[in-house]
From TrEMBL:
Pfam families: Glyco_trans_1_2 (PF13524). This is Spore protein YkvP/CgeB glycosyl transferase-like domain-containing protein. The keyword Membrane applies. It comes from Fistulifera solaris. It comes from the Eukaryota. Residues 352-451 form the Spore protein YkvP/CgeB glycosyl transferase-like domain. Keywords: Membrane, Transmembrane, Transmembrane helix. The chain crosses the membrane at residues 39-57. InterPro entries: YkvP/CgeB_Glyco_trans-like.
Length: 475
């Protein structure tokens, strides 16, 4: 404010300018700006206080006791398979859906021979999946592209839940859909109770529950799938690394449903292997000649820098700097820091062949998670392409992955440097770790089968004629 006023005053150096109307107007504008800033500050403090008090009285998270659940979270399936599944909200004609629900739920249902997708919500044999992230990404992107929106999101001033999106109305909207279907079923003399699966694939670590739906349908028929199960994860400016947080203890009605290796990623990998290397998904691609020593697919592109930094990316920036420093310190080391193919929202929609080719050309791929939550597609993409993967520590490593055996975790900048140098100088150990990656449980249909049946029914093996296609050295 002081600098603004000084710059305005410098426009005229004559003492007579004190009587100039333009000077009075400038001074009045500056005072008005100062007044607006004070009002905005007061409003921000008021909203923050109101938000904190509201969180303490959140009826979903703090005051509703978790139901007593049995050890068996599966339900009695329909008499015949495949099991019909209705997904809400999902409208393919109007593109009304989240990317995650399309990549995981819809694709998983379509790919599994034990499941079938139905648009008939009154199918008496169908189970329902509710997308708890409906509307979340729209609010997030609208806010994150503006500085004021970033501030409100960062401080949770747009809602009661962490990361600033209040999902309280979602349960009510989903309940309205259920009750509307019950009214239609009553006229058709169809059963009024059926299994409900609430799938939360958002970044929120808070536990989403819908007690009203449990009351109407019976808690024994309502199950939850949750992606983000680590809370308290933060980037520490003092330590210059991420504090890992704590892993949530979920009741048996909840299933941890992490992300997957996407089907379009595997298809893109299949195409590149065939066209460029004359290889298949079953080939030992971890042994392919690779020219990049260490790769980190992240760079602070000016166009996206503000947005990405607002997305909790301090650790990613730090790792990019670390890998770049390695390349400068060791001139013979070939490092790659940047993007390959599409990134941002476009990268969520499809997988570029340039990105697959870059992954296949890297001996070591370093993947870093967002500062505030665990789990991302980049981990699965790097693993499935046969590189040895170094990741920042995960409290919720995907099933089958073991630190030191199939993936390497690092806990600091120095740890990342030393492990990168060690495994570059020990190629046999590096290739052995890349070979031991376990990807046979992380396709879209695995998530859906486990959510609905309580177990994975489609097992991958070396034989391409089995339930699901063999996926890159699956174990």
């Amino acid at each position: 404010m002081k600098k603004i006023l000084q710059s305005k005053l410098s426009l005229s150096s004559s003492p007579r300018s004190n009587n100039d109307h333009s000077f009075a107007r400038i001074l009045w504008q500056a005072l008005q700006l100062q007044r607006i800033q004070k009002i905005a500050l007061f409003a921000g403090i008021f909203l923050a206080t109101f938000h904190i008090l509201f969180q303490w009285h959140d009826p979903w998270y703090n005051t509703i006791p978790l139901p007593v659940s049995s050890s068996d979270r599966s339900y009695q399936p329909s008499p015949t398979l495949p099991q019909p599944v209705y997904v809400w909200p999902l409208d393919l004609e109007t593109n009304s859906y989240n990317t995650e629900i399309l990549q995981i739920a819809y694709n998983g249902i379509q790919e599994s021979r034990y499941l079938s997708y139905t648009t008939n919500r009154n199918d008496p044999n169908a189970v329902w999946i509710g997308d708890a992230g409906a509307g979340y990404w729209l609010i997030w992107y609208l806010g994150a592209h503006h500085e004021i929106g970033q501030f409100l999101l960062r401080h949770g001033l747009l809602g009661r839940h962490q990361w600033g999106y209040d999902r309280t109305p979602w349960c009510h909207r989903f309940l309205q859909q259920i009750q509307s279907s019950q009214q239609e079923r009553r006229k058709l003399s169809l059963p009024l109770l059926w299994p409900i699966y609430i799938l939360d694939l958002t970044d929120f670590s808070t536990v989403l529950r819908c007690p009203e739906i449990e009351k109407v349908m019976g808690s024994e028929r309502v199950f939850y799938g949750k992606r983000s199960i680590v809370h308290g994860r933060l980037f520490s400016q003092r330590q210059q690394w991420t504090q890992f947080g704590q892993k949530a203890e979920l009741p048996s009605s909840f299933l941890h449903t992490p992300l997957i290796v996407r089907t379009d990623t595997v298809q893109g990998l299949h195409d590149v292997l065939l066209e460029k290397y004359n290889q298949t998904l079953a080939s030992p691609i971890e042994e392919l000649p690779r020219t990049i020593d260490v790769a980190h697919f992240w760079a602070a592109v000016p166009k996206y820098k503000s947005f990405l930094k607002g997305s909790r990316s301090h650790l990613k920036d730090l790792v990019s700097d670390t890998i770049s420093d390695l390349g400068e310190q060791y001139p013979n080391m070939n490092v790659f820091v940047g993007f390959a193919g599409s990134h941002g929202s476009q990268g969520r929609l499809d997988v570029a062949s340039a990105y697959i080719e870059a992954l296949l050309d890297a001996k070591i791929v370093v993947v870093t998670q967002t500062d505030r939550w665990e789990d991302h597609y980049r981990l699965y993409e790097a693993l499935v392409t046969g590189s040895m993967v170094i990741t920042d520590r995960m409290l919720s490593l995907p099933r089958g992955l073991i630190n030191g055996t199939s993936v390497i975790e690092c806990t600091s900048r120095d740890d990342l440097r030393s492990k990168s140098l060690y495994y570059l100088s020990h190629p046999e150990e590096r290739i052995a770790i890349a070979r031991h990656v376990a990807m046979s449980q992380h396709r879209s249909w695995h998530r859906m089968e486990e959510l609905i049946f309580g177990e994975i029914k489609s097992q991958c093996s070396l034989d391409n004629n089995t339930d699901c296609p063999f996926v890159v050295h699956a174990s």
